[in-house]
Structures are given as structure tokens and as C-alpha cells.
Amino acid sequence: MLYDITRTISPELCVWPGDTPFTLTHVMRLANGDSVNLTTFTTTAHLGTHADAYYHYEAGGAHPAGMPLDAYIGPARVVTVGQQDGPLFPADFSHVDLSGAERLLIHSQVSDLPDHQWPECFPYLSVELIAWLGGLGIRLIGLDSPSVDAFTSTDLPCHHALNRHKIVNIEMLQLRGVPDGAYELVALPLKLDGACGSPVRAVLRSR
């Protein structure tokens, strides 16, 4: 079974308030007698389902082209949380066997929202949770939330904690209809140099 856990990119897709939305322009059209349809688009690097690069929050951090590709492919565990807002802690996952998972995907009520609706509240990580997961060998943490930190955070403690523990992250997954359990994840960022993040096409395959 294959699950597409990517938000659909369109002009209606919500972005972080104040960021650059997706716009698409036709440069050439078959309907106008041109030889091809040719489009140009403009948008934020953090569009829809995306991977943050370390450069997003560390001046000397890696750009998407330099992020570790193998972290975005491999065994993953989907876990649903009931919490609708605020930080998540190790106790929220103590009932789940994460041994050998390497990648944790956190499913919340945000996946129930349509692509055009910004979540007014969402669960996010905590420094304690990141340290605990790092100790378990987790290499990637994915959320359906728009950030690993609180919406109002400016010092971004969880982003920096991810870098310290050499964990990569994906935000704005679409996990509606995906049962909890073990999967194989493929969610590669584009090979972008100089950028702070990259959209990904994230898919899960049943193991």
C-alpha cells in the first residue's frame, strides 16, 4: 500500500502568514498556438510539505543540497497524538515501540484541515522530546504542523535542538487516513543550493 502524504501545491495552499504564496504564470500555451505549455512559478521554499534545511536557522548550516539524503529514506513510524496545541514530550510517546524506526511522523488534527486553511493551533516539539528521540536513534521527525516550534517563538529552541542532535525535520505532512504503524518513508528535498528549505514529495509504503 502506498500513501501520498504530501499537501497539494496550488495557489490556494496556505503558507506561513507573511510568506510568499504559490503563484503560477503561463509563459506559453498550446491553446494560443505555442509549441508547448510552459509555466513559471514563484513561491516560498517552505511551501506545503517541506524539509527545513539547517541554513534556515543556523548561519553556517547546510542548504538543501547539502542535507543528508539518507535521512529522508527508510523505516518510519506513524504515531497519532490527541493533543491539539502546545509542546509534545517523551511521555506522549512512551506507549509506542520506536526501536528501529529511525523516523517518527506525528499525526495530529492538523491533517484534517483542508490545504487552504491555516491551523489556528497545533502541537509542536519540545527540546526534551528531541533529546529523547535522538537518544533512540531517530534521524527524522515529521509533523503535519507548520513548525516544530510554537507559532510565536522567535528563538526557535526546537529547530536548534534538531541541529544539535543531527536530526532533520519535515513540516506540513498530510497524514489523514494513514493508520498508525510501521512504513518506509521517501521524502527527498530538491538539490537546491543557497536555499533555506525545499518542498518534498513525501510517500509512505507499507512494510
Tell me what the structure shows.
The protein is mostly beta strands. The protein is globular and about 60 Å long. It contains 2 helices and 13 strands, in the order ββββββββαβαββββ. It has one domain: 3-Layer(bba) Sandwich (Glucose Oxidase, domain 1). The strands form 3 sheets. It has a 9-stranded mixed β-sheet with strand order 1-13-11-5-7-9-10-4-12, with no helix packed on it.
Task: Please describe the structure with a list of short key phrases separated by commas or semicolons.
mainly beta; 207 residues; two-stranded antiparallel sheet; 13 strands; nine-stranded mixed sheet
Mean pLDDT: 97
Assess the beta-strand content as a share of residues. Answer: 25-35%
Low-pLDDT parts are none
The CATH first-level class comes to: Alpha Beta
Q: Write out the strand line-up for the largest beta sheet, numbering strands in chain order.
A: 1-13-11-5-7-9-10-4-12
**CATH fold field value:** Glucose Oxidase, domain 1
Structural class: mainly beta
Radius of gyration: 17 Å
Order of helices and strands: EEEEEEEEHEHEEEE
Q: CATH superfamily assignment?
A: Putative cyclase
Number of helices: 2
How many individual domains?
1
Number of strands: 13
Largest sheet: 9 strands, mixed
The percentage helix is under 10%
CATH architecture: 3-Layer(bba) Sandwich
End-to-end separation in angstroms reads: 9 Å
